[in-house]
């Protein structure tokens, strides 16, 4: 039953699809009629076809009927299709076909007549496999008489107007129609610029005003209007005429009718030229009566702007005065001084006035001029004319050439004298310079003086050296230090001050060698302006003053003396450093003891070691002395003012080398600071131990350098001796184990563990799970064990041994460090042990999952999926034989 219902519901859908398939076919379309056209105009009737088979380009036949029978007009594919009465018009081209696409053509009838009124049929020959759809379409064409009349002025066909820029004018045209149909008129005013006509303003057939391109703003402002009047007249009003309004004007009228599809159709169009308008530009000349002007500060500046125009009638002038610092500045960059609008309203100003002398002259008067008024002045004038609505329109605007105005400053008369009240005789002595203003005249309350200090370095050659600014004062007497003296001025080493009303002073508290040179000052005079600002009016430079003193080169001599000529290891080494200097004022000395070790000393590969120092304030400091067991083993003390003593207790074999005194002489500088004068280096004192002790050698050994992960690695560091035999109790060793984690020794060694001579073991921090142990198994053998080796324990391993030997006096002497040749430790992975546990775990999990799957399957089939099946009872009947029938 269910399948039957689904089939029944699909039947309507199938029938609908079959119906749509049968309904699809060729469609020929023409406009919906009737088409109303005016006699004598051109008629275009389009025809198109769609939903067809066959070639893309289709052919068309046109026929005409006035009453019943159709007469053949023209065809796109058959030249003999045209009937005899239309052959002449078709041959002349009055009737023709114009193809717009492969599936559309247009029937064009020029100069249609009333006899052309009737039915037009468009048909298409069949190219379809089956005949479906429509193959022709008809449209009714109605021809009406021409009732449209367009005319201009009654006096003459076209008039000429000569107007001035800014004037207003009006043009009229008349348009009327007596068409029997209900038609609407579309009126457009046009202007001819060049060879093309441009739309100005239109009154459309729908009763809407539409301004042309470029006339939108003027239409919104009311400068262009289109008004309708009596007797079907249309008036164009233009206000504020400009040069673009010159040209020929015409009135273009088109007649429109609403078609059967409610769309508007233009049926004819007529135009008439109304007038030719010439716009004469208004001439305006703007000139400033004076060319170049020079006035003295605090005098008055008088300038007159003269304007000349050919404008007649009612007009008003607008004048604006501008000022700029450059003659090339534009109006937007210039400053507006004063303005007078066309209503003779003058903008407000205190020191500047603008007056209207006569009809064409405008006077600018600037009182109490100053230096800031120097520049370029120019005048801008504009002509305004009244409009019909009472407003004013600007017709022309011109700007005069700029006039240069130079304001001469009233410079004060004064002189500058520079002298040194304090000169240095030695370095760090004070220096004081005084810059005085003398013979000052014509100075008043509006004049202010400031000073600038400059320095020029002394050179023995003829090279030109530019001066360096030390400090300067601005108009507010604010001190601005230069780059050379800024830091010393902030520290109080250089002081600038005003000693008296006419005296500026410069004091250098502690004169240094860098202060040698020429000094000069510049006194600047500042004038107060109208706006209470200060402008520099004059600079006067003093003669230079040279600052120098007689000097001699510093000399420093340092002599080192060894107090004990002979000593052995374990004794005290002692030497003195005697210092002598010349040409240094009250010197103090700082001493540094250095040691030049042999190049075989691995603890100091650079060769020179800074041991201990004593500065000029007698403060002792350990420099590079790193022996923690002998922190107090070196002493440096000051014996006399120029003598220093160095002691080193319990000397070791490793102390052998050349010892020197590095001395620096200091002289007192400014502000209680010390200034470095000169350095000196003493002669070397050698410490050399002549011994015939044993020679130590170190080697690394391993029975099994290749091991597997998790195993134990044994590395032995073996020390051997040659030469003089020693009691094991007189020998002790510091042992350190290192590893380089690479096949080549191209990485930094890593400290693993160390064992000092006292038996204390130190281990470095480790990241892995393996562990280390370091022990001494004999007096000359040391064993390093790596427990539970991992892959990161591979690499080159070596030990560094520092021997210690006890001398006959019972003093332990440190021998140079000895480095063993490295041995490479390789750690391999045991594949069987690595995969044994993962394999066992995988087999176990697979077995458990298999058993669990069997159990779930059994339980599901036993209880969850049990279903009773009832067999349908069938009747068993035997077939009857044909004979029994």
TrEMBL record:
What region holds the Ig-like domain? 12-132, 165-273, 284-381, 412-541, 694-802
Q: Entry's SUPFAM superfamilies?
A: Immunoglobulin
Q: Which interval of the chain is the signal sequence?
A: 1-25
Keywords of this protein's UniProt record, alphabetized?
Disulfide bond, Immunoglobulin domain, Membrane, Receptor, Repeat, Signal, Transmembrane, Transmembrane helix
Q: Which residues form a coiled coil?
A: none
Q: Which InterPro entries match?
A: Ig-like_dom, Ig-like_dom_sf, Ig-like_fold, Ig_sub, Ig_V-set, IgSF_V-set/TM_domain
What is the recorded membrane topology of this protein? Single-pass membrane protein
Kindly list the residue ranges recorded as spanning the membrane.
837-858
- Tell me which GO cellular component terms the UniProt record holds: membrane
Keyword check for Repeat: yes
What protein name is recorded for this chain? Prostaglandin F2 receptor negative regulator
Name the gene: PTGFRN
């Amino acid at each position: 039953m269910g399948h039957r219902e689904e089939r029944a519901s699909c039947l309507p859908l199938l029938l609908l699809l079959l119906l749509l398939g049968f309904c699809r076919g060729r469609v020929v379309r023409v406009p919906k009629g009737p088409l109303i056209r005016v006699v004598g105009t051109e008629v275009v009737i389009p025809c198109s076809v769609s939903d067809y088979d066959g070639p893309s380009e289709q052919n068309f036949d046109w026929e005409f009927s006035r009453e019943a029978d159709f007469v053949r007009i023209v065809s796109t594919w058959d030249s003999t299709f045209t009937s005899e009465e239309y052959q002449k018009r078709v041959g002349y081209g009055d009737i023709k076909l114009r193809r717009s696409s492969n599936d559309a053509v247009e029937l064009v009838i020029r100069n249609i007549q009333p006899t052309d009124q009737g039915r037009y049929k468009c048909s298409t020959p069949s190219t379809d496999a089956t005949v479906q759809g429509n193959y022709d379409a008809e449209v009714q064409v109605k021809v009406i008489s021409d009732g449209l009349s367009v005319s201009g002025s009654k006096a003459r066909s076209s008039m000429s107007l000569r107007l001035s820029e800014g004037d207003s004018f009006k043009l009229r045209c008349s348009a009327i129609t007596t068409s029997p149909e209900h038609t609407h008129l579309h009126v457009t005013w046009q202007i001819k610029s060049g060879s093309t006509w441009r739309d100005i303003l239109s009154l459309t057939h729908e009763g809407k005003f539409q301004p042309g391109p470029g006339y939108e703003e003027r239409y919104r402002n009311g400068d262009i209007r289109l008004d309708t009047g009596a007797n079907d007249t249309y008036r164009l009003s233009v206000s504020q005429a400009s040069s673009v309004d010159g040209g020929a004007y015409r009135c273009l009228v088109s007649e429109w009718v609403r078609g059967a599809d409610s769309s508007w159709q233009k049926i004819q169009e007529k135009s008439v030229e109304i007038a030719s308008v010439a716009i004469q530009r208004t001439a305006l000349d703007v000139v400033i009566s004076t060319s170049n002007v020079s006035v003295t500060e605090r005098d008055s500046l008088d300038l007159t702007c003269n304007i000349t125009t050919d404008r007649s009638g009612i007009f008003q002038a607008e004048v604006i005065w501008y000022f700029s610092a450059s003659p090339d500045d534009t109006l937007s960059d210039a400053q507006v001084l004063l303005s007078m609008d066309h209503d003779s309203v003058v903008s407000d100003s205190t020191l500047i006035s603008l007056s209207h002398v006569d009809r064409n002259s405008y006077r600018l008067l600037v009182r109490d001029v100053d230096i800031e008024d120097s520049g370029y002045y120019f005048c801008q004038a504009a002509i305004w004319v009244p409009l019909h609505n009472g407003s004013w329109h600007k017709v022309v605007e011109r700007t005069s050439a700029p006039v240069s105005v130079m304001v001469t400053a009233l410079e004060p008369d004064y002189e500058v004298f520079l002298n040194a009240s304090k000169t240095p005789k030695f370095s760090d002595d004070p220096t004081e310079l005084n810059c005085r203003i003398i013979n000052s005249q014509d100075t008043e309350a509006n004049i202010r003086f400031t000073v600038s200090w400059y320095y020029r370095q002394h050179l023995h050659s003829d090279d030109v050296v530019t001066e360096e600014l030390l400090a300067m004062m601005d108009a507010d007497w604010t001190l601005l230090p230069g780059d050379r003296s800024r830091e010393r001025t902030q520290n109080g080493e250089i002081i600038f001050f005003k000693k008296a009303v006419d005296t500026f002073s410069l004091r250098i508290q502690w004169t240094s060698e860098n202060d040698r040179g020429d000094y000069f000052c510049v006194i600047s005079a500042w004038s107060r302006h109208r706006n209470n600002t200060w402008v520099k009016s004059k600079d006067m430079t003093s003669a230079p003053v040279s600052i120098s003193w007689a000097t001699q080169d510093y000399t420093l001599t340092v002599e080192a003396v060894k107090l004990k000529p002979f000593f052995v290891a374990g004794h005290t080494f002692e030497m003195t450093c005697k210092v002598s200097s010349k040409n240094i004022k009250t010197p103090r000395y700082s001493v540094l003891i250095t040691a030049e070790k042999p190049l075989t000393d691995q603890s100091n590969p650079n060769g020179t070691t800074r041991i201990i120092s004593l500065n000029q304030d007698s403060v002792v400091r350990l420099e590079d002395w790193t022996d923690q067991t002998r922190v107090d083993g070196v002493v440096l003390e000051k014996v006399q003012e120029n003598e220093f003593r160095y002691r080193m207790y319990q000397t070791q074999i490793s102390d052998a080398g050349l010892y020197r005194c590095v001395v620096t002489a200091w002289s007192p500088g400014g502000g209680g600071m010390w200034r470095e004068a000169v350095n000196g280096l003493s002669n070397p004192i050698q410490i050399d131990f002549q011994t015939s002790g044993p020679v130590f050698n170190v080697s690394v050994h391993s029975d099994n350098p290749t091991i597997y992960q998790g195993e134990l690695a044994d590395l032995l560091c073996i020390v051997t001796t040659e030469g003089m035999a020693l009691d094991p109790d007189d020998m002790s060793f510091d042992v350190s184990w290192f590893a380089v984690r690479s096949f080549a020794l191209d990485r930094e060694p890593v400290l693993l563990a160390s064992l000092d001579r006292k038996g204390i073991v130190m281990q470095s921090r480790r990241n892995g799970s393996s562990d280390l142990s370091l022990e001494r198994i004999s007096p000359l053998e040391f064993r390093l064990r790596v427990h539970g080796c991992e892959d990161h324990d591979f690499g080159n391993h070596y030990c560094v041994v520092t021997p210690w030997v006890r001398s006959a006096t019972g003093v332990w002497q440190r021998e140079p460090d000895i480095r063993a040749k490295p041995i490479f430790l390789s750690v391999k992975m045991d594949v069987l042990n690595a995969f044994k546990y993962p394999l066992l775990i995988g087999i176990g999990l697979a077995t458990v999952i298999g058993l669990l799957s069997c159990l779930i399957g059994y339980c599901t089939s036993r209880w969850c999926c049990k279903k009773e099946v009832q067999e349908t009872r069938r009747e068993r009947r035997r077939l009857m034989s044909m004979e029994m029938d």
